[in-house]
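sry for the spam today, last one i promise. struct tokens for design, 219 residues
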């Protein structure tokens, strides 16, 4: 009798755990600097928020993929569980990646490079930028401007996703003429889909709530 009750209890627990688990196929719309929280546009419609702990494996074509190389627009498959109403990832597989930044960063065939801010050199206007595939480049930002005017390296934060345009006086030095911080960049198809059917007040409230979610880094 006890064995039967134990089996029934274990079966009930397993069923509850299965009900809490789900798989999501979709596209990364937004992420925070720490890349431990994502906003995903799922393929079946809903826009979902996923916490992605730093111990969670990220794979691309069965190989480990560096989360710092994730970009808005990448396609993903996520296995997650519900935890107090939130989705917590157990694994993430990259199914499609945005290639333009990767190609530009490796071959420098264009004058615009995308990467993450790494570290400032002392109190100078030089910094290192992390490119895809764990490559780094030194950036001279003494003459760099952005949408709001002159860009000061001291205003940039670790993990910021940057779009830098400039010239290459040497193979390891990019002399920036413009720097745009695109950490909060969201592809237009994501925003269009999310705002469909919303009134302005609803859009403002949702976007503010999503920003609060992204700001709660697990670091």
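last one done:
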């Amino acid at each position: 009798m006890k064995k039967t009750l134990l089996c029934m209890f274990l079966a009930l627990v397993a069923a509850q755990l299965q009900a809490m688990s789900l798989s999501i196929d979709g596209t990364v719309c937004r992420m925070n600097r720490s890349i431990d929280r994502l906003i995903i546009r799922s393929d079946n419609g809903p826009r979902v928020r996923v916490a992605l702990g730093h111990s969670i494996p990220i794979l691309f074509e069965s190989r480990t993929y560096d989360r710092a190389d994730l970009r808005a627009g990448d396609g993903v498959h996520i296995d997650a569980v519900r935890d107090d109403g939130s989705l917590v990832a157990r694994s993430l597989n990259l199914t499609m990646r945005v290639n333009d930044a990767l190609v530009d960063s490796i071959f420098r065939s264009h004058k615009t490079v995308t990467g993450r801010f790494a570290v400032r050199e002392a109190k100078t206007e030089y910094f290192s930028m992390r490119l895809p595939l764990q490559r780094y480049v030194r950036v001279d930002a003494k003459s760099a401007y952005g949408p709001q005017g002159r860009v000061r390296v001291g205003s940039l934060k670790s993990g910021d996703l940057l779009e830098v345009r400039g010239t290459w006086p040497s193979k390891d030095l990019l002399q920036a003429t413009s720097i745009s911080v695109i950490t909060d960049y969201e592809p237009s198809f994501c925003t269009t889909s999310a705002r469909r059917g919303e009134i302005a007040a609803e859009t403002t409230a949702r976007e503010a709530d999503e920003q609060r979610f992204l700001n709660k880094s697990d670091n």
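The longest strand covers residues 21-31. ok im logging off now
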